[in-house]
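cache lookup: miss for this entity combination. No prior model stored, computing from scratch. Input as submitted by user K.M.:
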Amino acid sequence: MNTPALTTLTAVPEGKVISFESIRVACRNCTLMTLCLPLGLAPEDVERLDSIVRRNRPLHRGDFLFQSGDRFRSLFVVKTGSVKTFAQSPEGGEQVLGFHLPGEIIGLDAIDKDAHVCSAKVLETSAVCELPFGRLEELSVTIPSLQHQMYRLLSKEIAHETEMLLLLGKKSAEDRLATFLLSLSQRFRKRGLSPTDFYLSMSRHEIGNYLGLAVETVSRLFTRFHEEGLLKVDRKHIQLTNLDAIEAMVIRAPVEEFRRRIS
Amino acid sequence: MNTPALTTLTAVPEGKVISFESIRVACRNCTLMTLCLPLGLAPEDVERLDSIVRRNRPLHRGDFLFQSGDRFRSLFVVKTGSVKTFAQSPEGGEQVLGFHLPGEIIGLDAIDKDAHVCSAKVLETSAVCELPFGRLEELSVTIPSLQHQMYRLLSKEIAHETEMLLLLGKKSAEDRLATFLLSLSQRFRKRGLSPTDFYLSMSRHEIGNYLGLAVETVSRLFTRFHEEGLLKVDRKHIQLTNLDAIEAMVIRAPVEEFRRRIS
DNA sequence: CGCATAGTTGAGGCTCCTCAATAGCCGTGG
DNA sequence: CCACGGCTATTGAGGAGCCTCAACTATGCG
């Protein structure tokens, strides 16, 4: 079941000899990074949690983690790369629900019905950990702090969705794209990656779908942001040259909204 | 702490003599209805859960269950009446996050930060149960099935928010109001109330705020739905005279959307 | 009865979508 | 090597939907 942990070693020079122990440690550390940051457990419990994690081999663009309707077995944690989740209609169209970056957990919405209610597709070559949920539940019975962290994790997801709800319900196209870029920036920063210089693994089409905007609108906004000096954009490569201004847009937006809606 | 359970007896004729036992049982049953439906526990565990529930005296329009920033202590379950949750800006404006009907739980988004991230205000005279979360967590350590139900509850909330996300991101004003009305209808039905004949406890302003629409748009839509024979509306009193047509609108909407967004 | 608030209705404008055409990128194959 | 088709992204013109502003009506409360 547990595939050996080569998934974390893409940066290792070819031909270099590596001990089995060093692989195990590297993988452990990677798992620690991605799981324990959100879960915040004590070291000895991390050990026990680690023992139930499955490390699958790397996935490639277009691979599915799961599809809507699949029986729910595991949560997934992105280690490297990115994954999109989406709901799909019988006709083959889709609605993007989220983009998931390293350290983020996928599948929390499937616990209730014991079946996945959306699909998860890999956007670029990615490493993903699998957490069998049954095992996780068993473990959380014996580790109260794990249980507490699970509650927090689920609660955080709810609070996050609430923010998205505000975004889509109230904000202009401009604010939506700014919020999206700022969110990416902050999530990259949290993972030690550059918050101002990154590649978008998703298409303009997917961004528009996610934000409730037409592709053309997204494209025009990128152009306008570029002209206004907020960022440099070359196809999928983004450089945020004026992060403050983008933050200001996002912060300011709700204030204006609220001013109009005084009851 | 535990206020006597007169909250559930509003229908009892004045002057009628009631034994203490009958009050206790009535209240227990009410709690059972509201809590165990979503939680789905075994009877003996329900007993234990019931023992930690606080039954507060009835609340009135404008009362707060909690305000944004308050320390998180308890979840709340609406027994009768209705409650709205909203985020507010320093300027005093607000953004409605949800309307909560009998049987529904409030406060799940506060677990993560151990503080409330939104405020909850009572819309009409309401009875609300309080579940001290610390006690609930302790209990869920000793009752694995309660833990499982808690996970399900939180997961269900995430899935629900996801649906709202689709609603606000993609649907027309017409579809939003139809979805809103259908949601109310289904939730009333689930609680044994009429799914086609009910009073709105919230203002047009609050509905518009919730759905991301201007008050005027909401008003115009009610008029149009009335003209089209979908419903009868007299101020806050709503009668859905063609529930099928409303369902058809909601179902059909995503299909058209998806057709346009084929990748 | 008068004021404040909630709700309705109309006119006009802005934002964003739709449709359509063009330009860039990439793999395939001549 | 370039040609070609397919796909993604960009840009422009026009239009639909919803918001804004404003006036008016209805309701409730002192």
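stored under new cache key. Chain A touches chain B through 55 residues (CB under 8 Å).
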